[in-house]
Every structure is written in structure tokens, then in C-alpha cells.
Amino acid sequence: MSIRPANFSGTWYPDSASACEREIRSFLSEYPSDAAEEETFVGGVVPHAGWFFSGSIACNVIHRLSRGEAPDVVVVFGMHLHPGSRPCMMTEGAWETPFGELAVAEDLADALADRFRFRIETPERFISDNTIELQLPFVKYFFRSSKVLAIGVPPADQTLDIAYSVVEIAEQLGHRVRVIGSTDLTHYGANYNFAPRGSGAEALDWVCNENDRKFIDALTAMNPAEIIREGLAHQNACCAGAAAAAVAAARKLGAKRARTVAYATSHDKHPGDSFVGYVGMVFG
């Protein structure tokens, strides 16, 4: 089996199983769940900055998805794509993680590739992408025997058709699935050429309580089309298509409500005039 090498281990997250596990154990103490949250969640939205900045939020979302009967496949939607971009998928092989190889759900991938026009990647030929790779050590750690299907999706209507088809085909194949959408929120400041409220405390407040809040509200309403519209209109999500796909698939799986696990910004750990918002959500 061909293995797609990890490009961000040792920099954006640790490159050994022992170091990753120490990080994960620390992350789980930051956002402990309470008794009211002891339910089964079928989908979630996670951020994808380096683990120092947002790994704790992503870890706690994926940990909550591991409750209940283990899925056969974990589907991760991500990638930085434009509305006109072609969706992207690796249909064979496996992903390298510090905890071991994470095999692709090839039967589900092949069926999707027959239905939609994807740009097909291979373990040897691919575009380096943090949005998906940074989630895979968590997936392998919490879902030891599950396979993965990673799909790059643009903020476009076809993405919702792909999300619905993922669930439909998985059911036809007899697979239990969990779904994850990977996106950060507002990228604010000179580093990102986006600073409509200047700098300082006023800018941070606007990002946290207005711009990011609009996108979180769309996630909470579980409205996939509005999630895409909001991200494109207000620059408050870098991968709105991925978030919308996770919500659409979660709804198809029966999810009826959203719960926020955590919200933070990179400013919390590295104060400055350029910063990024992060949210973790689960759907059940």
C-alpha cells in the first residue's frame, strides 16, 4: 500500500506518537465535557492552525465524535479552494500519521469518483494541505480501526451534493460514518490584507463578537447554504465549503442541533494586530 507522507509533522504538530499523545492528554483537560454532553455526535467543525494555536479545540471536537459505536469511516472535508475550484480527493493508499498508517476508504472513494468530477490525488502526487493533515493524528488516535476519506471541497453548491452523496453511498455500502469539516474563521490584520476595523482592542472585539459570530450563528442554525454565503460575503471562514459539507452530511445522518465546544483566537496565545479566529462545534 502506498503511503502519503506527512508534510507538517515536526513543525505544526509533533512527529512522534509519544509526543502527540502527551499533547492530546493535555488538550483533553482544557475542555472537559459535562454530563449533559454525554450523547452521540455524528459530525463536527474543527480549526486547522498548528496544534499550539488550535489543536486543543480540534482534539476535543474529534474526541466527542468518538463516543458510541466506532465508525467504519471518518470523512474529513477541507482544503483552501475557491468557488470555481474542482473538488479534490485521494482514492487509494493511506496517510502517514505518528500513530501509524490511516487507510483510505477506497470503496467509498471510488463510488464518489464515479458520480462527481474530482481532481484525483495519489500518495505520490498531491498538493500539500494543512487543513486535513492536522486532523489525521487525532482521527487515528481516537478511531484506531477506522478508515478515512479526505475530500477537498469548494464553497459552492456542488459541495452540498457531494456531502449528501457521501452519506447516501456510505449507507449503501453498509458503512457507519462520522464527518468533520476543517476551517479557521476570520483572518484579520495586515498579514492577511484584511483590516476593516483598524487595529487594537476594537478590531479584536469586532472579529470575535461580530464577524466570527455571524459564521458561528450560521453553523448553529445548521444551514449549509447560508454557511457558504456567509463565508464568501464576510471573509469569516477560509474553508466555508468544508464547514457546509460537514453540516450537510451531519443533517443527512440525522443531526438536529449544534453545540459549541470552544471558541478562541490566535491572539489569545500570541497577541498582535494580525490574528485568526477558531471554533469547534459538534452536531448531534
Question: Short description, anyone?
Answer:
This is AmmeMemoRadiSam system protein B. By secondary structure, this protein is an alpha/beta fold.
Topology:
Elements: E1 3-4, H1 17-28, E2 43-46, H2 51-65, E3 73-78, E4 88-90, E5 94-95, E6 102-103, H3 106-115, E7 119-121, H4 130-133, H5 136-142, E8 147-152, H6 157-173, E9 177-182, E10 187-188, H7 201-220, H8 224-234, H9 240-252, E11 258-265, E12 275-283
Parallel strand pairs: 1-5, 2-9, 3-8, 3-9, 4-7
Antiparallel strand pairs: 2-12, 4-8, 5-6, 10-12, 11-12
Describe this structure as you would to a colleague.
The structure is a single chain. Helix 7 packs antiparallel against helix 8 (224-234) and helix 8 runs antiparallel to helix 9. The protein has a single domain (43-283), classed as LigB-like (Protocatechuate 4,5-dioxygenase, Chain B, 3-Layer(aba) Sandwich), CATH 3.40.830. The chain has helices at 17-28, 51-65, 106-115, 130-133, 136-142, 157-173, 201-220, 224-234, 240-252, and strands at residues 3-4, 43-46, 73-78, 88-90, 94-95, 102-103, 119-121, 147-152, 177-182, 187-188, 258-265, 275-283. Helix content is 38%, strand content 19%. The strands form 2 sheets. Strands 2, 3, 4, 7, 8, 9, 10, 11 and 12 form a 9-stranded mixed β-sheet that branches. A 3-stranded mixed β-sheet has the order 1-5-6, with no helix packed on it. Strand 5 (94-95) and strand 6 (102-103) form a beta hairpin.
